[in-house]
Amino acid sequence: MNYNFKKMLSIATLLCASMTFADSGSCSACPTSCGQGQNLFQPHAFSASMGRELLVGKHAWTPTANEEGWYGQVGVAGEYQQTFKKKCHEISCCDTIGSLPFWSESNQMTVGDNSGDYNLDAYQIGMGPVTTNGTIRLSPVIYQAGADFFLYVGAHKTERGFFLKAHGPVGVTSVDPRFQFSDDVLPVIYPVGAIDLTTNPATPAPNVDLGAAFMNPKAGGFLKAMHKGLINCKRSSSAKFGDPEFTIGYNVVADEDKHLGIGLRFAAPTGNKAEACYMLEPIFGRNGHWAAGGEIIAHWKCLDCDTQDRYLNILFDGSAMHLFKSKHMRSFDLKNNGAGSKYLLLAKYSSSADGATFQNEVVNAVNITTAGVSSSFAVEGNFALIFDFHWNNWSLALGYEGWGRYCEKLFFDCACPGSIDYNQYAVLGRQLASGVSTSFYTEPAATIGQSQDTVTTAGAFTSTIVDATLSKNRIPSIIEEALDIEGQIARAVYTSKPFIQFQYTWRDCDYNPYLGLSGGAEFPNGKIKNAAIKFWQVGVQGGIAF
Q: Order of strands, edge to edge, in the sheet holding 358-364?
């Protein structure tokens, strides 16, 4: 029987692992490149931790005086998680947070003019045609803290029967972007016609420095204030009852030394969802995704020395769930203008017809490319394996947790069709919004770091500087042609977390109360360096068995 059980457990482990961590290439739409300019990151949810569940739930199989009839345990686990801090001069800092909000493949961007020598043209963020240059830098630290309440109830500890498992976390996620910028970039007055009418005096640059441009941008003339994709000081989600999960199952093998249970698992989205106002929004939970799938849970008491009250338990718990559609907000780059183009300046025209007139409105693209989306994930998987050594009242658990998620399927939410006609907007680059005499220019191929100098002669159209009043020269109306969907898709991800726990159980007391302390570290695996957050964590567990 022991051999059969070990064989079943091996098959279950391989099945769960293969479902969870299959090569991302099996999803044909999965991007294989490092995501850049992703303002939203979707971390490993605090609620999704099989390692924590096993550290709390393993107490259900602690020997008790009454091994007959209903059994189980209740417990709670408090945990604190934090990203590994890196020094600011290490330009790969953002590979620790599961996202690259900048588009320079690092946590630092150079800021200057439109020559293409810099990652960001300051003209596009309300600072005018600057002649100086500098840098902006993120060195984010992300914290998650909370308590996870756990319940396991089984029909019979040593016989086949049904079981119910449930847990519900309460906690908070906090993001400190640690935004730094150089004071070397000095604002310059915009040329007449850039952000004001040609008959008025030139308007000063609305933003006095790089900090103001991203943290508290101002309006000026007909340049509207940017209100999406901002960087702010430390932000936290409110305390949330985040994504409780439930399993209803049946123990198909059960005796004094082992058990194997299979069940249906569900998760409800009670955490917060992305609103796209800021880079690196704090999300507690799965960003609004319902989840459903299966779970396999097992233990085996493989070594036992009754005379010295010493034994070794091997415990396994694994799940694979589909994450159903979540509707939330997401900011997009322009499809034809590269990473970071969400911050390009756009001029608004009266309609999508030829001969449309300029509406005295200039906006950063992110104000209109922030849209409602529908997001889902084919599979999220999570498993943990623990070797739990017991001697007298003490125990030492050594474990490994793996967590993985397929690439995201991302669609636009069409609940409000036609709310924005992108063809009303033309990419300015550095062209004058109010036109030169009767000529209105657009530079459709401008990027956030490179564009043509301002044209000041009427009718001076070229192959790259074209007539903005013509519909074909503005952003396409069809949203899939206008916005870069792939750039915002969450990449496939797999993480590894080794952990350890020391525990003391008062076995001479009723209900065997216990107290444990744990610690671990989680690291992303794979070629895409920014696919997941690197966390270290500490925790405390306590509860009773019955």
A: 358-364, 345-349, 425-427
Distance from the Cα of residue 38 to its chain's centroid: 9
Cα 164 to Cα 69, 151, 250, 514, distances in angstroms: 15, 8, 9, 21
Q: Which of 221, 223, 212 is nearest to 187 (CA)?
A: 212
pTM value? 0.89
Q: How far apart are CA 341 and CA 449, in angstroms?
A: 9
CA distance 536 to 55: 17
Say what the pLDDT of residue 306 is. 66
- The 10s digit of each residue's pLDDT in 312-364 is 999 999 999 999 999 999 999 999 999 999 999 999 999 999 999 999 999 99
Give the whole-angstrom CA distance, residue 48 versus residue 380.
10
- The Cα 226–Cα 365 span in angstroms is 9
Specify whether the CB–CB gap between 405 and 433 falls below 8 A.
no
Question: In the numeric block, which tokens belong to residue 68?
Answer: 């007959």
54: three-class secondary structure by DSSP: helix
**Nearest C-alpha neighbor of 131 from the set 212, 186, 191:** 186
How far apart are the two ends of the chain, measured CA to CA in Å? 27
Burial of 526 from C-beta contacts in 10 A (0-12 / 13-18 / 19+): middle
Query: Would you state the pLDDT for residue 19?
Result: 42
Cβ–Cβ < 8 Å for 530, 35: yes
Q: What percent of the chain has pLDDT over 90?
A: 66
Separation of alpha carbons 373 and 57, rounded Å: 37
**Residue 159 Cα distances to 5, 10, 59, 67, 250, angstroms:** 14, 21, 18, 10, 11
**What CA–CA distance (Å, rounded) separates 375 from 527?**
23
Q: Which residues pair with 137 in a beta bridge?
A: 108, 180
Q: Using CA atoms, how far apart are residues 328 and 375, in angstroms rounded to an integer?
A: 8
* DSSP classification of residue 249: E
Which residues are paired to 459 by β-bridges?
A: none
Q: In terms of residues, how long is the chain?
A: 546
Helix H or strand E encompassing 215: helix 210-215
| Whole-angstrom distance, CA of residue 439 vs CA of residue 435 | 5
Residues 480-520 pLDDT 10s = 999 999 889 988 889 999 999 999 999 888 889 999 999 99
Tokens for 26, please give them: 């099996």
In the DSSP assignment, the letter for residue 486 is: G
Residues 6+ apart with CB under 8 A from 461: 439, 441, 467
Two tokens, residue 39: 């303002």
**431 vs 455: CA distance, rounded Å:** 6
